[in-house]
Amino acid sequence: MIHYNIPEPKLSHDFTIEDIHKIRYWNYERMKDATIEERMKDSQKRANAVLKRMGLTNFERIAANKISY
């Protein structure tokens, strides 16, 4: 089970090593009880969101490795 109720960490304006530690801890707490399938689904969902923000087309197929280059 993914713990969605854990608030995202507040990051500093300068993005320091402490921010990286906060993100890693937050991610650990969210995922510590998740199954492999839940982790994969969550990763794909987040990757699709990033690809979409980057303006890439067919991001669902790219994330699923269905497009050959």
Keywords:
mainly alpha; 3 helices; flat
Low-confidence runs of at least 5 consecutive residues: none
Instruction: Please trace the helix and strand order, writing H or E for each element.
Output: HHH
In percent terms, what proportion of residues is strand?
A: under 5%
Work out the helix count.
3
The proportion of residues forming helix, as a percent range, comes to 55-70%
First CA to last CA: what distance?
35 Å
Derived from helix and strand composition plus strand pairing, the structural class reads mainly alpha
Number of strands: 0
Radius of gyration in whole Å, from Cα? 15 Å
Overall 3D shape: flat
Mean pLDDT across residues: 84
Molecular structure report:
- This protein is mainly alpha-helical.
- It has a domain at 34-69.
- The protein is built from 3 helices and no strands.
- The protein has helices at 17-31, 36-53, 59-63.
- It is flat and about 35 Å long.
- The model has no long low-confidence stretch (mean pLDDT 84).
Please render the helix and strand layout as text.
Blueprint: H1 17-31, H2 36-53, H3 59-63
